[in-house]
Design the sequence.
């Protein structure tokens, strides 16, 4: 029997890889649910990155304006 490895984003969604096909495999609905959770976690992480980029860009623009004055 092969044990799966756990992947995730911090404490967010996890999925399993490497499950054996001998009785220990996930049903397709369970696998789909895990993929859905992983996608939701990735989208949440992307939104955090986009917000951080927007904040950084705003700070850079404010610093530029201060330098120009």
Sequence:
């Amino acid at each position: 029997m092969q044990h799966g490895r756990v992947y995730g984003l911090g404490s967010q969604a996890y999925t399993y890889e490497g499950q054996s096909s001998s009785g220990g495999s996930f049903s397709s609905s369970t696998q789909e649910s895990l993929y859905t959770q992983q996608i939701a976690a990735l989208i949440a992480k992307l939104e955090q990155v986009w917000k951080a980029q927007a904040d950084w860009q705003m700070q850079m623009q404010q610093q530029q304006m201060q330098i120009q004055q």
